[in-house]
Design goal:
The protein is of the alpha/beta class. It is built from 11 helices and 8 strands. Helix 10 crosses helix 11. The chain is globular, with a radius of gyration of 17 Å. The two termini are about 15 Å apart. It binds pyridoxine-5'-phosphate. Pyridoxine-5'-phosphate binds near residues 72 and 216.
Length: about 250
């Protein structure tokens, strides 16, 4: 099986920093450490309200990272201009509601195809790999393909929530859906990623999907770093991903 990349999302290092309004802890330092710990990429979401990552963080990450930056953004003109200025390796288009605590669902691509096709075209022309964060739904996957996205990221939140709440039948149904849609996306020629809510307990069945090329994981790793440190937290996630894919150390 091909190498499954691990993108480490450092948003919540910025959440802790912003709780005190100062400069500590620095998400850029976390990103460099994650890089040394074996992250294949760094993911950061610049939200409209700047609740965690700031414009200055994106500038710092663009300058300092050796691994690719995956810039998560809403489909707004403001974010498009920022992405075109920094030209990150990848942009991931996510839905964004001001009142939500986190990215709750996937992007509604099927009902917004024209606008999204025009929105992503300049990003792709600027050399960014364009990823669309969507639910594991064939309508959305087909629409993402039609608008010219190179990558889809499947939302694993419902699967992880069902696991956490002990709804194991729902969890297994979600897992089945994600597995089928990973294969479907790949069959259309899309590169398939996944993420949201993944933990040590939920990562293995997802990491075993043969078509999958990347996982993006943030909240759990930043939380786990409190207990065991960021480097061991990432190393354990890497180990579980490799084990699920039958990679021998
Ligand atoms: N992928 C996307 C597109 C996201 O929006 C997020 C959350 O910002 C993640 C992955 C990571 O989710 P989590 O922080 O729950 O691991």
């Amino acid at each position: 099986m091909e190498h499954l990349r691990l993108g480490v999302n450092i948003d919540h290092v910025a959440t802790v920093r912003n709780a005190r309004g100062g400069a500590y802890p620095d998400p850029l330092r976390a990103a460099k450490l994650a890089e040394e710990a074996g992250a294949d990429g760094i993911t950061a979401h610049l939200r409209e309200d700047r609740r965690h990552i700031t414009d200055a963080d994106i500038e710092g990450l663009t300058e300092a990272l050796a691994v690719p930056l995956n810039f998560e953004m809403a489909a707004t003109e403001e974010m498009q201009a920022i992405a075109l200025r920094h030209k990150p390796h990848a942009v991931c288009i996510v839905p964004e509601k001001r009142e939500e605590r986190t990215t709750e669902g996937g992007l509604e691509v099927a009902q917004d195809e024209n606008r999204l096709a025009h929105f992503i075209a300049p990003l792709a022309e600027a050399g960014c790999r364009v990823s669309i964060f969507i639910a594991a739904d064939p309508r959305q996957i087909e629409a993402a393909n039609r608008i010219g996205a190179q990558v889809i990221e499947l939302h694993t939140g419902a699967y992880c929530d069902a696991h956490a709440e002990g709804r194991f039948d729902d969890r297994d149904a979600e897992l089945e859906r994600l597995r089928d849609m990973s294969a479907f996306g790949h069959s259309l020629g899309l590169e398939v990623h996944a993420g949201h809510g993944l933990t040590y307990d939920t990562v293995a069945p997802i990491a075993a999907f043969p078509e999958l090329r990347e996982l993006n994981i943030g909240h759990f790793l930043v939380g786990e770093a409190i207990f065991r440190g960021l480097t061991p937290a990432i190393a354990e996630m890497r180990r579980l991903m490799d084990e699920a894919r039958g990679v021998t150390p």
